[in-house]
Amino acid sequence: MGRRTARVPAVVLALALLAATGCSNRESAQARAPRDTGSGTAAAAADGVQEIMVSGSEQLRFTPSTIEAHAGVLRIILVNTGTTPHDLQLTGTGQSTGLIRGGEQGRITVTLTHGRYPFECTLHTRVHMAGTIIVS
Ligand SMILES: [Cu+2]
């Protein structure tokens, strides 16, 4: 009896923690959405800088999720097609578009050498709103 009553608070605490840290229904649905939305290749803009437009959607995905580019300067224009704010940051570098609100766009210009560079939306890492830049 004494052991049983002592256990109850632990169970209640565990449930409370689950409720506090669990995903919302919408976010758990997004976590099941395909992460790979295809690839796109950056092309030279009028100023000669290679550029690509990436949309950030209400489905919490970047499209395309894979960006192919050549070594050198790359400009990524993030277009937020939804209403939820997003950003696009080269993972671990601090280089970011900053927060882009729904219907707005922002850019990030980076200089990259050959390799693979992961990027992410720092607001939605939990549902893997992320992609990869492949520089050849
Ligand atoms: Cu986001």
Descriptive report:
- By secondary structure, this protein is of the alpha/beta class.
- The strands form 2 sheets. Strands 1-5-10-9-7 form a 5-stranded mixed sheet, with no helix packed on it. Strands 2, 3, 4, 6 and 8 form a 5-stranded mixed sheet that branches.
- A hairpin with a 5-residue loop joins strand 3 (50-56) and strand 4.
- It has a single domain (35-135), classed as Sandwich (Immunoglobulin-like).
- Helices cover 20% and strands 36% of the residues.
- It is globular, with a radius of gyration of 20 Å.
- Bound molecules: copper (II) ion.
- The site of copper (II) ion has 7 residues, from loops.
Strand order of the largest sheet: 1-5-10-9-7
CATH superfamily: Cupredoxins -  blue copper proteins
What compounds sit in this structure?
copper (II) ion
Rg, Cα atoms, Å:
20 Å
Low-confidence runs (pLDDT<50, min 5 residues)? 11-23
Give the class-level CATH name: Mainly Beta
N- to C-terminal distance: 68 Å
Number of strands: 10
Question: Overall mean pLDDT score?
Answer: 85
Label the structural class: alpha/beta
Short description:
20% of the residues lie in helices and 36% in strands. With 136 residues, it is α/β, with parallel strands linked by helices. The strands form two sheets. The chain has a five-stranded mixed beta sheet, with no helix packed on it. Strands 2, 3, 4, 6 and 8 form a five-stranded mixed beta sheet that branches.
